[in-house]
Design brief:
Blueprint lengths: L2 H20 L1 H6 L8 H20 L4 H25 L11 H26 L1
Helix pairs in contact: 1-3, 1-5, 3-4, 4-5
Length: 124
């Protein structure tokens, strides 16, 4: 993983974090109902993504920021596993069907791998 990959991760995190505030309704749909306080969780995770993305941008703290990104995204797996458990083939939205929920889970595991790769590259 090179500097371009690190900067791309940082931009991805910052843009996604900002999106939490621009289109919060979408992100609230990703929060499992049993967690409650979806609005607060969306705002908190959006802010966290912006801060972590900024850390990844800074070479001096890039490794720590990348590990923080991996941890943050790992926390999101709760939502994706919950979606997979609740998925049904007859749901109208693709992300609520088993294939869509599984794709969400796989993509997020790849995001974690991306953050770990940046952290390991930076530490080397």
């Amino acid at each position: 993983m090179n500097t371009i990959g690190a900067i791309a991760l940082a931009v991805f995190l910052i843009v996604t974090g900002v999106a939490h505030f621009v289109v919060p309704g979408y992100f609230r749909t990703l929060v499992p109902a049993w967690l409650g306080r979806a609005g607060l969780l969306v705002a908190a995770t959006g802010a966290a993504e912006i801060v972590v993305g900024a850390l990844v941008l800074l070479p001096a703290v890039r490794s720590a920021g990348s590990w923080a990104a991996a941890a943050l995204i790992t926390g999101y797996l709760v939502s994706h596993v919950d979606a997979l458990c609740r998925a049904r083939a007859d749901r109208p939205r693709m992300l609520e069907r088993p294939v869509g929920a599984l794709a969400r889970l796989v993509v997020n595991v790849l995001y974690i791998a991306w953050a770990v790769a940046v952290a390991r590259y930076t530490a080397a």
